[in-house]
Amino acid sequence: MLSHLLIKNYALIDQLELTPDRELNIVTGETGAGKSIMLGAIGLLMGNRADTRVLYNPEQKCIIEGMFGVSGYLIEQIFDDEELDYSDTCIVRREIGVSGKSRAFVNDTPVNLETLRRVTSQLMDVHSQHDSVLLGSNEYQLEIVDTYAQDDNLLRHYRLDYQNYRTKKGVYDQLLSEASAMRKEFDYNNFLYEELTKAQLQPDEQESLEQELNILENAEEIKERLQLAYGYLDNAEQSVIDFLKGTVGNLTYISKLSDQYEQLLQRAQSSLIELRDLADEISTEQDNVDIDDARAETIRERLNLLYQLQTKHLVKNVAGLIALRNDLEQKVSKVLNLDDVLADAKAQADAAREQLQISGQTLSETRQSVLHPIETEIGGLLKELGMPNASLKVQSETGKPTPTGIDTISFLFSANKGVKPQQLKNVASGGEFSRLMMAIKYILASKRSLPTIIFDEIDTGVSGEIAIKMGNMMRDMAHSHQIIAITHLHQIAGQGNAHYFVYKDHSASKTVSRIKKLTFDERVNEIAQMIGGNNPSASALKNAREILKQRAAPSLK
């Protein structure tokens, strides 16, 4: 249940805090006082979108925060699904910055709006006046049936099967649409593939061949210069190595006279060894340099082929050619195996459709099983609400699979005896819509483990004894759910465990909306004003007191 609500810097609200009662809370106030503003703020907690126009002070951010007690409501799974910390107290916060940027948090963990909606939909159900319009839509009527049937798991499995079928069907359809073009391109792609395959491309071969060709084309000069380099190091007449031998001999002699020259001797000996090794390697490299015109020509031909292929296919290197060859191989292979691929894709799509039909039929049967109970329960409640001749027929038709199943649900309604039930949107008046919606919310409340239900003037178009019965129904619902009811009817206002009054405060330079919890005497006066106007008579005050004293009278259950 909602244990605390904070609204800060929103619309006409500077700062508002509310600590609702566990059961039935009544919210009243004049039109335009700010009741709908408070509901709009709660809508932000439900994931509705907002912008900077909601800021009371455009230089400060807006904060909406709700604290919910969720112990015993069996909603831990959704926290696991969304990887959120779960505790018996859940804090949901929404912030709208001065730039219009929105942030949402669940138990201080940042979440996106989709996650926020998933979580808060398990915490609150808000009935707005717009819901009465929605009641005329088949989609909303189907949601009512699903809620009554408690078929969430079946619906979830069906949606997974539906998505799987759409994916598999999409793959098959895509293959079909591409098959003709793929076959047309096959000859050309196969020619290119065979050409690249015949080239026997090897990674990094171009760089290696270019380096080898460069050596072959300059073999004479390389051989000559290696010979000169070797001669400088080691030859019969005069060389660096001969000079270094002399250096070693002299250092050997003086190191015998003093140890301080030993390190110089060692360095000279190391240098002599290194130069002999270097001379040997230069000699070996010189021997390895061949003047081979035939090999050079072979390499030129190979490189010319690689350059031509790169130019032809607009790539920069052999790696690009190999990547193209591999891509062409896939395309060619795909066409060669196209019939098998199509057959496999079709088999997978058919199997997914068969599974979808099974899931859809199972879901449909569950829905069908609750249609008559819904008709019976709502019919009985409508009689309680002063519509003894009203009848509701829930009609179901099956068809092609859709994201919500294979069923189309239609609520057919008649308020009068002898009149055939017709589509709701064609026959129900405002007051009839309100009573029907109240009956629906009443029967659904027992089917959902939902902490808080908010009614925004669900009593529109009713009065008198019917309003009293609607108030009694809210009291019954409040035994298992926290109810917050915004109302203009004194019959319903008198049923609340707590009564909050919303008003405009004009005492400062800028009008603000405020809310206060009424004492018993203040409730008497407010209800009396709802009965008899701003200056209630003694009889109106007496009537208000009697309404409040009768709160403890037995309710429907």
TrEMBL record:
Top-rank taxon, per record: Bacteria
Record InterPro entries: DNA_recomb/repair_RecN, P-loop_NTPase, RecF/RecN/SMC_N
Signal peptide: none
Domain RecF/RecN/SMC N-terminal as annotated: residue spans: 2-507
Keyword annotations of the record: ATP-binding, Coiled coil, DNA damage, DNA repair, Nucleotide-binding
Molecular function (Gene Ontology), one example: ATP binding
SUPFAM superfamilies named among the record's database cross-references: P-loop containing nucleoside triphosphate hydrolases
Residue ranges that the Swiss-Prot or TrEMBL entry lists as coiled coil: 254-285
Family as reported in the entry's similarity comment: Belongs to the RecN family.
Function of the protein: May be involved in recombinational repair of damaged DNA.
Database matches in NCBIfam families: recN (TIGR00634)
Protein name in the entry: DNA repair protein RecN
Naturally occurring in which organism (per UniProt): Spirosoma agri
Phylogenetic lineage: Bacteria, Pseudomonadati, Bacteroidota, Cytophagia, Cytophagales
Gene of this entry: recN
